[in-house]
Design brief:
The structure holds 3 protein chains of 3 kinds.
Chain A lengths: L1 H23 L4 H23 L7 H26 L1
Helix pairs in contact in A: 1-2, 2-3
Chain B lengths: L8 H27 L10 H32 L6 H24 L2 H7 L17 H24 L4 H17 L9 H36 L3 H22 L13 H10 L2 H16 L8 H24 L3 H7 L3 H30 L7 H38 L6 H7 L1 H24 L12
Chain C lengths: L1 H23 L2 H8 L4 H26 L3 H31 L8 H32 L9 H26 L2
Helix pairs in contact in C: 1-5, 1-6, 3-4, 3-6, 4-5, 5-6
Chain lengths: 85, 459, 175
């Protein structure tokens, strides 16, 4: 079980590196938006489901927290997308 | 009543109800002055009527809180009050000081009152709700400190429960934040800061602790639900109230010269302020639904439920209505504020005091509950006052929306008085609702004198 | 505790969205101001918080196996990361203040400093909670059958991490 946690930790670190790398590589604003938000979404899900161990927890809690993540990240994406056009 | 000394609450409650009646009478006078400008002029000008209306509100609520504390703390601590004599002495001091202050407002021009009471030594007068002359303010501090000494000694030597600790912290906070009223800086922005630190931190901070403790106390008694459950709710409610309420002070900083970022902080945090009130509603209904006993005092249960609902509507919903900075840009200082003020004060604080009175008064008069007929009258008064208050709020809201439109948004904005003229119909309807409220209050007072057959030998 | 976590998430969520939508009206200003941030320090801080969260997961696992001491060690490791996070953050804020930047400079810095400070205070609170849990674990106050306190403290700490996971790309990376 702890092996899985270690693996998840490494994924989190890798995703952070990807996000920073993307922002350093002088890509256009549009190009980095989707991948960076995607890494954020994945990272958030790992923390919620694995670290907080909400996967398999009593129903409402997990969905509320995951729902929060999706709504917040989604609306951020929407706002940034709007700002570009 | 478990402890003899709890009886000191009785005079406090009686005084509270008496002053409440006075508040409503002056409210009606002022309500009429909105539409008949020279009514009772020059004997009672509008500004004096307003000052008496608001000051009586504060004083009677303080009487109510103190009475509630003197009743609740000994019972929760499981011992007699440290000094019932001191509590009674403070009652008379506070009553005389309060009455003298109100008479001062009514009989003497405010400027002369200021001169005679040493306002030039330490200028504290002239600010809304904090108009009291210096000696009265000092009197309030003395009375509060004596009460806190008395109650703290009782708790220290007795059982410590969440309820009595929350109540005590609330009362300490009340006394401490009142100290800001002694500082009246010449700088208008600073002045507003200190003023809000009394007014806001009272009603949207420590008073919520007092209210939560009182409600929890009555709910334990009338529902018989486990203390652990109720205390857990109380914890969460007061934590939410403090988190949202303290930074929520920012919603008063929008236009007073404070930095602009307060528009964000004030908006976000005050948008959360309805949450604790919503939880209080859920809390009250939840506990009553899970009740383990049928308490004979039905009226007290009704008041407790009503407090939850009306506090949420008045403080939560009507507060949220105009708390966001972009909305408040148009609504501040309009009749919307008045609508919110009326329903929030009634729904949260007036009703929680009446909940407490309704539960304790029969006990202090030697019975578990009043006779059926007396309770029926009390419940009628509940509905009359509450429905009347709902209508007062709705009419003021309508007046407020129209006022904002005519005065602040329309292509050719009207002057203040011209806009007031246009909304006078709503003021008339508000005044009629106010009369119905008065009828409710008179019935409420009458319910104390109705004997009827006592059928509450059980419980 | 879960109720508080949800309330906290709600507050942060509202602030994040306020930032995102306030930006739509001021894109140039936000982008220009963002360039003044120390992205490296932000990235290191992300690594620190993610790692501390992982250490907390290990600590919870240890107490499930009734190993109080090593639970405490993992918690200390997590708090070391947390402490370093706070120190870096202070350096970052210090540099901004020295540069004459405050919450009133512009809307971007209002959010950067305001949100950063608000999150900072949550890290401090999280450290206090973890500290209390560590102390109790060290004294053998938890066991394989009773470790609710460790789980609660862990949940709060993960929340602080989760918030930062969104805050970092939002304020430091996306432009």
């Amino acid at each position: 079980m702890m092996k899985a946690a270690t693996f998840q930790w490494l994924i989190l670190l890798a995703m952070t590196a990807v996000a920073v790398g993307l922002s350093q590589a002088s890509l256009s604003d549009n190009a980095i938006l989707a991948p960076v938000l995607l890494t954020t979404l994945v990272k958030g899900r790992i923390v919620i489901d694995r670290f907080m161990a909400l996967q398999g927890a009593i129903a409402p809690w997990r969905w509320i927290v995951l729902g929060w993540l999706v709504v917040v990240v989604g609306l951020i994406g929407f706002a940034f997308h709007m700002a570009q056009t | 009543m478990k402890y003899k000394s709890q009886a000191v609450a009785k005079p406090y409650f009686i005084a509270a109800i008496g002053l409440f009646l006075g508040q409503i009478v002056f409210g009606l006078i002022m309500g009429l002055q909105y539409v008949v400008g020279d009514f009772l002029f020059p004997a009672i000008p509008f500004n004096v009527a307003r000052m008496v209306h608001t000051n009586l509100l504060i004083v009677w609520l303080l009487f109510g809180f103190m009475g509630a504390a003197y009743y609740l703390i000994p019972e929760e601590s499981e011992r007699e009050l440290h000094s019932p004599k001191l509590a009674l002495a403070m009652f008379w001091i506070f009553l005389v000081a309060g009455a003298a202050t109100i008479l001062g407002y009514l009989l003497v021009p405010y400027a002369s009152l200021a001169k005679w009471t040493g306002n030039d030594l330490l200028a504290t007068m002239g600010r809304e709700f904090l108009e009291q002359p210096l000696p009265t303010k000092i009197g309030i501090v003395v009375v509060a400190l004596a009460m806190l000494y008395n109650l703290s000694m009782t708790v220290l030597r007795g059982r410590k429960t969440t309820i009595n600790l929350v109540m005590l912290i609330g009362l300490w906070g009340l006394a401490i934040f009142f100290l800001f009223s002694f500082y009246n800086p010449g700088n208008l922005v600073k002045d507003k800061y200190y003023w809000w630190w009394v007014v806001h931190l009272w009603v949207e901070g420590v008073w919520e602790l007092i209210m939560g403790a009182m409600l929890a106390f009555v709910l334990i008694k009338v529902t018989g639900v486990d203390r652990e459950v109720i205390e857990k709710w109380l914890y969460v409610i007061i934590a939410m109230a403090l988190i949202s309420g303290l930074i929520g002070t920012g919603h008063h900083y929008y236009w007073i010269g404070a930095p602009e970022y307060w528009q964000w902080w004030g908006s976000v945090f005050s948008a959360l302020e309805p949450i604790p009130f919503f939880m209080m509603t859920v809390f009250a209904f939840n506990m009553v639904n899970r009740r383990r006993r049928e308490h004979p005092n039905k009226a007290a249960v009704l008041w407790a439920l009503g407090t939850g609902v009306m506090a949420f509507l008045g403080a939560g919903v009507w507060g949220f209505l105009h708390t966001l900075a972009p909305v408040n840009f148009y609504t501040h200082g309009s009749q919307i504020t008045a609508a919110h003020g009326h329903m929030a004060f009634y729904g949260a604080y007036a009703m929680v005091v009446m909940t407490m009175i309704s539960y304790t008064m029969p006990l202090m008069r030697g019975r578990a509950a009043n006779s059926r007929i007396s309770q029926v009258v009390e419940m009628w008064s509940f509905w009359l006052m509450t429905v009347a208050m709902v209508f007062i709020t709705l009419f003021l809201t309508a007046a407020g929306i129209l006022q904002i439109w005519l005065q602040r948004i329309a292509a050719e904005p009207m002057s203040f008085m011209a806009a007031q003229e246009q909304v006078s119909l709503f003021y008339w309807m508000r005044e009629v609702s106010g009369l119905i409220f008065l009828v409710g209050l008179v019935l409420y007072i009458a319910s104390f004198f109705i004997k009827g057959k006592s059928e509450a030998a059980t419980a | 505790m879960w109720f508080f976590i949800l309330a906290e998430l709600l507050v942060f969520g509202v602030f994040f969205l306020a930032y995102a939508f306030a930006r739509t009206r001021n894109v140039e200003l936000f982008n220009a101001s963002q360039l003044e941030l120390d992205q490296l320090s932000g990235a290191i801080n992300t690594v620190l918080l993610i790692s501390s969260s992982y250490f907390v997961v290990r600590a919870v696992d240890q107490i499930r196996h009734d190993r109080s001491r090593s639970c405490a060690y993992w918690l200390i490791a997590a708090m070391t990361c947390g402490g370093t996070f706070l120190a870096l953050k202070l350096v970052e804020f210090g540099a901004k203040i020295e540069a004459g930047i405050s919450m009133s400079t512009n809307t971007f810095f209002m959010f950067y400093l305001g949100l950063g400070f608000f999150h900072f205070m949550h890290v401090v609170l999280g450290m206090v909670i973890l500290g209390a849990v560590t102390l109790k674990a060290w004294k053998g106050g938890y066991s394989a059958t009773s470790y609710g306190g460790v789980e609660t403290g862990a949940a709060y700490w993960h929340m602080v991490d989760l918030v930062w996971i969104i805050l970092f790309p939002l304020i430091y990376v996306l432009h």
